[in-house]
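TA notes, week 10

Several of you asked for a full example with nothing omitted. So below is the full record: C-alpha cells for the whole chain, then the designed sequence directly under it. When grading your own attempts, check the secondary structure regions first.
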C-alpha cells in the first residue's frame, strides 16, 4: 500500500512555506532595508532554495504584494447567500476578511502596506499585479451570477468596485506632508478600526445605493 501525501497536507505545507518566506522577507526588509536584501538571503532565512522562493513569488516585489487577504475576500464572497445583491455581498465579504485577521497578520499588513507605498519598485510591480486581482474578482462574481468572466456587465461591475477600492485605499492627497510621508503615514495606520477600511465600506455603500452626481 502506497502512503502518499494527501492534498490537504501538501497544501498546508505550501501555505507554511509561503508564510515563512513572507515573514522572513519582511523581517529582513525591516532590519537591513529593502534594497539591501536579496532573494538568496530570504530563501536562506526560510531554509529553502532560491528556486523554491521563485515557485511561490515571481519577483522579490511579489513577496510584499501577494498575501492571502484577497483570497480570503473571495472565499468569503462565495459564502454569501446567492440571493444577496452583488455589492452587498462584496461588502459583507470584505468585512469578514478584515475580521479574520489576527494581530500578527495586521502587523504584517501594516509593514507590507508601508513598503508598497514607499518603495518605487514595489509600487510599480503592484500596479502590474492589479490585473491578477481584477481577474480573481471577475471569476468570483461570474460564478456568483452564473455568467462568464468576460461578460460586459461583470467586467463593468468589477471595474466599478475595483475603482472604488483603489481610489479610496491609495492616499493620493498629501495635505501638508510630503507625498512620501503621507503615503507612509496612511499605510502604517492600518488596523481593524482603520479609517481606510471604513471609507472603502462607505464608498461601496454609495455604489450599492445607486450613486449619482
Amino acid at each position: 500500500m502506497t502512503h502518499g501525501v494527501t492534498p490537504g497536507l501538501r497544501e498546508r505545507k505550501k501555505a507554511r512555506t509561503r508564510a515563512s518566506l513572507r515573514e522572513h522577507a519582511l523581517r529582513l526588509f525591516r532590519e537591513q532595508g529593502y534594497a539591501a536584501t536579496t532573494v538568496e538571503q530570504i530563501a536562506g532565512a526560510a531554509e529553502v532554495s532560491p528556486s523554491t522562493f521563485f515557485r511561490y513569488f515571481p519577483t522579490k516585489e511579489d513577496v510584499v504584494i501577494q498575501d492571502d487577504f484577497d483570497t480570503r475576500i473571495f472565499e468569503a464572497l462565495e459564502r454569501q447567500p446567492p440571493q444577496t445583491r452583488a455589492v452587498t455581498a462584496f461588502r459583507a465579504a470584505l468585512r469578514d476578511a478584515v475580521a479574520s485577521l489576527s494581530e500578527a497578520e495586521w502587523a504584517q499588513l501594516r509593514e507590507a502596506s508601508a513598503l508598497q507605498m514607499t518603495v518605487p519598485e514595489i509600487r510599480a510591480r503592484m500596479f502590474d499585479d492589479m490585473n491578477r486581482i481584477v481577474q480573481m474578482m471577475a471569476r468570483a462574481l461570474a460564478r456568483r451570477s452564473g455568467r462568464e468572466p468576460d461578460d460586459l456587465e461583470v467586467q463593468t461591475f468589477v471595474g466599478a468596485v475595483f475603482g472604488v477600492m483603489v481610489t479610496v485605499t491609495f492616499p493620493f492627497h498629501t495635505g501638508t506632508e510630503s507625498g512620501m510621508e503621507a503615503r507612509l503615514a496612511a499605510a502604517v495606520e492600518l488596523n481593524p478600526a482603520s479609517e481606510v477600511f471604513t471609507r472603502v465600506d462607505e464608498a461601496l455603500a454609495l455604489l450599492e445605493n445607486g450613486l449619482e452626481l
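Residues 1-5, 172-178 have pLDDT under 50 and may be disordered. Use that as a sanity check on your answer.
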